[in-house]
Amino acid sequence: MPSKRTSYSRLAWRRLGNWRAINFGYFAFGFIIYALLTLAFDAVITANFTWLWLVSFAVTYLLSLLPLATYLIILRYWLPSQKSAPWINLWVVALAGIVKNSSVPVVAQLLGLQTTNTMAFRIVGGAFTGVALFVIYSTAMSARLDHLETMRRLRESEAELLGYRESANEILQDEQIAISERIRRLLMPRLTELLSSLSKAGAASSLAERLQNVIDA
To answer: Can you spell out the DSSP letters for 105-150?
Structure first.
């Protein structure tokens, strides 16, 4: 029997595979953290507190959203049934962090700003930051994510049950039509024979006419 620690580890790993954790809340969380990091590692270190750092931050942050948005579009519209894939999520958020950090020197140079740290440092730091942000956010929002996952499964089950219900109604209607047809084929010869006998006897002609009308209906 797995220990509680093992079960918790599996649950935490499964949460990291929930691509729905990459949502607007995650974007807002990343926006705040990256803004603070820009202030600490760019403006403070270079002792240049110009508003152009805000422009640099905005542009580089928007660039970091491109791989995340592409990933979400692919999963939502082309692979909606994608199961938990922690490694893919971690690679994508790491890529987003790399794009964010590695684009800073390029944008800063276009704005006439001086930057520090080497490109290798920025790439490694960007990957680490991207993964760390996602792990922290998905862990902190675990209850909310589990609720959303449960509601998603309930909606899928509801849709499946509604599909079964519609299929059952169609099957029932087909069976009713088939039963009515079998009854009609079974009774028609006997009713026709009865009407013929009544007509030959010349009695109860009105009854024969009524029966004929019922058969024709």
So the answer is: HHHHHHTT----S-HHHHHHHHHHHHHHHHHHHHHHTHHHHHHHHH
